[in-house]
Recover the amino acids of this structure.
């Protein structure tokens, strides 16, 4: 069911989203990778192509959202035991071959900061991608930011003018004071680093972002991406608190092609997919859609609730990222 597009997906896109999605789209959260670089291939990657390069991205997005012009901020698919050298080399080749692709180097906390600087320069990367799975803290989901993004890497980002895509962890994400303090401190101390808080500040439970995003208000080098979030509340909180110029559309390819939805439940969240959920009910047939469609619907709802203009919407899908990554 993942990686395939059904007639129901296409009909939903045509009816609900075709008139909302602008013609030019910058995906600020795009994974390009080779399965050969994984120690253990993640489930979603295992069920898809072995080489996910830029043409592969374009082919899969064209199939569900025809006629759009895409650019992207791409990075490897972080995974425990990843061959980071191979993954960064592959990404570097994509950046070289396709002007539409900007790259973020995958970094692990054990990397020497000068190695990070050299690698970024060698491949022309524009940023860094850190991830909790590389943290030495167990369980890695409890890690503070500094455990998987050492301050020395942030210093290099500041000196080189790099973006940093941060998928924060800890149960309450940006509602957690430890995360708030880390991000506020590092972003203020290194003002030339550009922070992109992935998944609407990991607002898979939107109430966490609604509660916590105000802690970062007024810091000039923080953005958030919309990737793989399928509820509207976190997008709304970000725009209200940081302004419409701080929200970047992110598709999170290939999570775009996962079927299901992520929902807030209690003080946490749950990904509903066919693996853990029986999509059946007495009252109606339940046909889950691709995450790409669910996330776009949530963003459309947020834009509607915020009464955004067409030019505001175009900023989220293109203008904000174009400004951030001007070549
Ligand atoms: Zn992602």
């Amino acid at each position: 069911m993942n990686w395939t597009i059904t007639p129901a997906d296409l009909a939903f896109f045509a009816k609900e989203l075709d008139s909302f999605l602008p013609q030019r789209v910058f995906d600020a959260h795009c994974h390009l990778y080779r399965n050969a670089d994984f120690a253990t291939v993640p489930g979603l990657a295992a069920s898809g192509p072995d080489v996910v390069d830029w043409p592969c991205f374009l082919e899969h997005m064209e199939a569900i959202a025809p006629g759009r012009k895409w650019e992207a901020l791409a990075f490897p698919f972080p995974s425990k035991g990843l061959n980071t050298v191979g993954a960064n080399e592959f990404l570097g080749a994509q950046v070289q071959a396709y002007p539409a692709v900007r790259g973020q180097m995958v970094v692990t906390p054990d990397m020497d900061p000068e190695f990070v600087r050299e690698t970024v320069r060698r491949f022309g990367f524009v940023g860094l991608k850190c991830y909790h799975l590389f943290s030495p803290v167990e369980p890695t989901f409890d890690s503070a930011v500094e455990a998987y993004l050492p301050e020395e890497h942030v210093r290099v980002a500041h000196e080189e003018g790099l973006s940093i895509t941060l998928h924060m962890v800890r149960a309450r994400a940006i509602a957690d004071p430890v995360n708030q303090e880390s991000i506020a401190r590092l972003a203020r101390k290194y003002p030339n680093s550009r922070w992109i808080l992935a998944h609407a500040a990991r607002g898979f439970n939107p109430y966490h972002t609604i509660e916590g995003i105000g802690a970062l208000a007024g810091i000039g080098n923080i953005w958030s991406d919309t990737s793989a979030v399928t509820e509207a509340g976190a997008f709304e909180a970000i725009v209200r608190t940081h302004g419409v110029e701080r929200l970047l559309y992110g598709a999170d390819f290939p999570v775009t092609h996962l079927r299901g939805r992520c929902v807030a439940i209690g003080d946490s969240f749950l990904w509903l997919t066919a693996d853990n959920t029986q999509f059946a009910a007495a009252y109606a047939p339940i046909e889950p859609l691709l995450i790409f469609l669910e996330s776009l619907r949530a963003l459309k709802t947020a834009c509607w609730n915020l009464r955004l203009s067409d030019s505001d919407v175009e900023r989220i899908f293109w203008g904000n990222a174009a400004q951030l990554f001007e070549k």
